Amino acid sequence: MLINKKTNQFLAAVKYGSITKAAEEINITPSAISQGISELEQIIGKSLLSKTKNGMTLTNIGKYFYDEISPHVEALEKILLTIKSNKINKVVRIKSDGMYYPVIQEKLRSYMTSHPRVMLSCTCEVVQSIKHEMKNGFSDIVISPSDIELNGDSIEKIPLGKERVGVLVHKNLLDKHKNIKNLFKNEFLLQTLSTIEHIKFIQLKKRLLNDGFLIKENPMEIIDAIPWINEGLGFTFTTQEFVKSQNFNEDIIFISKPLPYDLFIYRMMYFVKNNSMDVLEVASLFESSAKVIK
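The chain above was modelled as a monomer; its predicted structure follows.
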C-alpha cells in the first residue's frame, strides 16, 4: 500500500461520512479505524475530526489536510490502474517497406501529440515475410505494397488505396537528355535500399528492361535521394503523394507518366486482429487516410 494505513483510514472515514460505514467498506473494525485516525492526529499534532450529535465533522485542519491530500491519492490510484492494465509506455512498432509513405509521418506526429504515453517506433525496411513478422511480434503494423493471402490467419489486411508512381528529376537533366529513355540510360537511378530490394521494385526493373529501358543503377547505398536530385545527380521513382507532401523548388520536376503505361503502387496495412487498443487506434489512422489517386 503506497499510502499509509492511517491516512487511508482517515480518507475512508471522510468519504463514507462515518467510522462505522468506513469500517464496513474497507473491511476492518470501527475501533481499528478510530485508532488509526488517532495515531495520525498524534503525528500531525492537530485534531482532524470532531464528534457531533450526527456523527463527526472535519475540523479546519482536517478539511485542509483532506483537500490537499485527496487529489494526490486519486492521481496515484490512476497511475496504479494504468500500470496494472499494462497501458503505460506501450511501444507501437510500425514497419513500412517499398517506397516512402508520407502519410506515416503526418499521422504519427498528430497521434504522438494527443497520446504522449504511447511510444511509436517507425522504420523503413524490406519485410521478407509479413506473416512471420506479425506472428512473432517483430512488428505491430506493417505497411507494404505486397498483397498476401492470409487464409484465416489472425492478421487483418486493409487496403490503403492506389498511388501514382512517377519520376522525380532535376529540370537540367531532363533538358540535357531530351527524353526518359536517355535519362534512364545515362543518369543514376537513386533509390533507398529498402526500395531497391523490394520484390515490387525488382519486378518494375524487369519490366523496364523487357521494354527496352536500360537502367544505370547507383552503386552506393543512399538514405535519402532528394539531396542528390536537388544537385542534379540522378533521378528517382516516387509517388505523387510524396511529391505533394514536399516543397520542391521549381527546378525539380515530377513526371507523373514517364512511360507509355501507368505505374501505380497499391499499399496494404497488416496488423494482428486481437492486438492492444493502442495498435488498433494507430491502424485506424492509416485506414481513415486511405484514398485512391487517379
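Residues 154 and 274 are 8 Å apart (CA to CA).
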